[in-house]
C-alpha cells in the first residue's frame, strides 16, 4: 500500500514539474534587455576622490604651465583629452603629458558637434584623432570627450561600437569663458562632490586657468579630496549617467 501511494505521489509530482516546464524541457537562456550606452558624468562613491580633466584643442602657451603646476603641486593623477590636430602640432607637449603618467583620452579631430554629422564622419574623425595620439604618444585611447561635449543617442552608439566610453563632467569650471580666477576657483570647489569629474581646459583659450588651478588643488585637498584618473573612478565605483535626447 505504501509503495503504491509513493508511486502515485511521485507520478503526480513529475506531472506538475513537467507542466511547469521545470524538467524535461530544453534549457532556455533569459536574455536581459541591453541598455543603450550613456555618457558618464560622475561616479557614486563615498570616497573623497575626484578626477581633474583637461581638454586641449589648440595653443602652446597654456598646456605646459598647467603641467608645471600639476608637477609642482604633486598631482600625479589627471586625465587629458587631446584633439588629433593639436597632438600632431605639439608632439613634445603631448609626449610630456604621457611621460608624466597622466591618462590620455580622445577629443576628436575637427572641433565640430558630432550630432550634426553622419556616423561615417564620426568614425572617420575619431579614427584620425586616435591615430594621431597613438603615433605621438603610443597610447591607444579608449575614453572620449566629444568636441563641445555634444552628443545624442546615435552618437553614443557609434562611439560605443568603436569601443569608446564617452566622458562628460559633473562640475564645469567654465574656465574658457575667463570669468575671473576667483570665479573659476569658487565654482569648482563649491560644486565638487565625491566621485566628481571636473572639466577644465589647458587650451590657450583658457587664459585664467594657470592662476586658478593651484588654488583649486589646495582648496580641494583642504576638503580632504584626492585626485585620480577617470579610469580609476570607473574601475572602483558605480557610474552616474544621464540619458540625453
From TrEMBL:
PANTHER family: GLYCOSYL TRANSFERASE-RELATED, POLYSACCHARIDE DEACETYLASE PDAB-RELATED
UniProt key word Signal: yes
Ranges for domain NodB homology: 48-228
Keywords associated with the record: Signal
Gene source species: Alicyclobacillus tolerans
MF terms (GO), sorted A to Z: hydrolase activity, acting on carbon-nitrogen (but not peptide) bonds
Signal peptide boundaries: 1-25
Keyword Ribonucleoprotein among UniProt keywords: no
Protein name as catalogued: Polysaccharide deacetylase family sporulation protein PdaB
GO term, biological process aspect, one: carbohydrate metabolic process
Pfam (any one): Polysacc_deac_1
Domain of life: Bacteria
InterPro entries from the UniProt entry: Glyco_hydro/deAcase_b/a-brl (IPR011330), NODB_dom (IPR002509), PdaB-like (IPR014132), Polysacc_deacetylase_ArnD (IPR050248)
Coiled coil: none
Gene Ontology annotations for the cellular component aspect, listed alphabetically: membrane
Amino acid at each position: 500500500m505504501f509503495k503504491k501511494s509513493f508511486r502515485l505521489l511521485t507520478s503526480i509530482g513529475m506531472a506538475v514539474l513537467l507542466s511547469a516546464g521545470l524538467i524535461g524541457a530544453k534549457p532556455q537562456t533569459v536574455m536581459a534587455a541591453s541598455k543603450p550606452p550613456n555618457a558618464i558624468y560622475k561616479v557614486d562613491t563615498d570616497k573623497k576622490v575626484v578626477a581633474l580633466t583637461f581638454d586641449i584643442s589648440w595653443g602652446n602657451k597654456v598646456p605646459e604651465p598647467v603641467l608645471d603646476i600639476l608637477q609642482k603641486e604633486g598631482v600625479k593623477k589627471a586625465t587629458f583629452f587631446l584633439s588629433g590636430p593639436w597632438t600632431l602640432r605639439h608632439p613634445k607637449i603631448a609626449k610630456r603629458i604621457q611621460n608624466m603618467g597622466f591618462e590620455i583620452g580622445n577629443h576628436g579631430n575637427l572641433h565640430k558637434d558630432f550630432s550634426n554629422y553622419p556616423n561615417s564622419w564620426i568614425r572617420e574623425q575619431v579614427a584620425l584623432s586616435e591615430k594621431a595620439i597613438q603615433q605621438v604618444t603610443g597610447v591607444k585611447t579608449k575614453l572620449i570627450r566629444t568636441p563641445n561635449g555634444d552628443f545624442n543617442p546615435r552618437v553614443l552608439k557609434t562611439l560605443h561600437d568603436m569601443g569608446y566610453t564617452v566622458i562628460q563632467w559633473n562640475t564645469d569650471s567654465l574656465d574658457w569663458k575667463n570669468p575671473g580666477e576667483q570665479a573659476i576657483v569658487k565654482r569648482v570647489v563649491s560644486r565638487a562632490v565625491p566621485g566628481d569629474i571636473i572639466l577644465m581646459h589647458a587650451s590657450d583659450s583658457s587664459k585664467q586657468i594657470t592662476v586658478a588651478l593651484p588654488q583649486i588643488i589646495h582648496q580641494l585637498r583642504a576638503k580632504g579630496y584626492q585626485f585620480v584618473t577617470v579610469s580609476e573612478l570607473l574601475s572602483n565605483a558605480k557610474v552616474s549617467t544621464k540619458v540625453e535626447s
